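Exercise 7 asks you to align residues with tokens for two separate proteins.
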Amino acid sequence: MKTDTPQPDAGPLLEFMFRLGQAYLACGEQTALVELFLRRIATVNHMRKTRVVAFPTAIFITLHDGNEERVTLAEAPMQTLRLDQIADVYTLGEAAIHGKVTPQQGLEQLSEILKKKARFGATGVVVGHTILTIGLAAIL
């Protein structure tokens, strides 16, 4: 006997997926893995007919919620993320893949991650990059 599972609203899911996809691209993730991660998130949210195509410059997502098909095109972000933000994006993505966050919660968390200020300010970023550059130069 087949049980009808309630279909979630595709709007928030679609928005979460393309914003998370943009964040993954800003992290420098491979496009094939971005596609895989987003399809898994759609599957966890009961969207079986999902198509995701990711390029370094754009993401195409199609969701079919049983009644209608929704399509979005999102361009890739122009900025890159800091290492602390990258870690948070991957943590959020992992939670979403395992169904531990709703699309709405994911949007809120992602917004907080992207607004997060550098821990040590602009001076700390410059000093950190200088130390990193000296260290890499010493290795080479």
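Second protein for Exercise 7:
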Amino acid sequence: MGDSENKVGSYNQAYYVSHREALSEKRAKLYSDNSGYRKRAKARAMERYRLQREGKVGRAARGYNIPKVVPIDGVDVRVHCVKEFADKLGRRVQTIRSWESKEIIPSPTFVDDRGRRWYGEEYMDAVEKAHKKFIEKNAVRLEDFKAMVEKEFGRK
């Protein structure tokens, strides 16, 4: 993908984020007023559901596990979903959530309006380094892992 395509994608994403409510209201009105639109929307949803049931479409194909770029404090940051982060560590998503709730690892880089967790590449690298050290030392206490994570984040 070229630079111009990335800029267009970033612009489209930024536009959608800033106009989300208006666009959502417009779609809802169109859905309620236009039977043809409603029929096509239902057909698309049923096709996605059928493909998903047959195992031909995964979550990434539906769009919410695809890495994206979000503006954080005026800086564009590439973020990855919790599943990708868990896979990088060789852990389950539930483990990552547990670590967050126990404050073993810091809060995610970004949480979208639906509550999905997104992690920046620097964040993922820091936790991965701490995780590798934890495994290499054959440590078992989560307090030790938390200290290693804090040390990695302190270096940034």
